[in-house]
Glutaredoxin (Gilvimarinus algae), 84 residues
Amino acid sequence: MAKVLMYTTAICPYCVSAKRLLAAKGVEVDEIRVDRQPHLRQKMMADSGRHTVPQIWIGERHVGGFTDLWTLDKRGELDALLAG
């Protein structure tokens, strides 16, 4: 299974939704809380080109936010991506 990295904050409903979707698929997420480690938000923004959370990587691929993750799932592409 591919490694999943997600930048989040505690009060982000989209972060919660993304974690729930991935948990339902049996995926463990490596989470970086940018509200606890604000210096890592700069890295997230540099790597993703975005400033909102969540920002999700599956393996080396930047997926984007929750809506992007959900869209991949609805298209039937998420499971293959997670399989690595």
User: Anything to note?
Assistant: The beta strands are 4-8, 29-33, 55-58, 61-64. The mean pLDDT is 97. The first strand starts at residue 4 and ends at 8. Residues 4 and 58 are 5 Å apart (CA to CA).
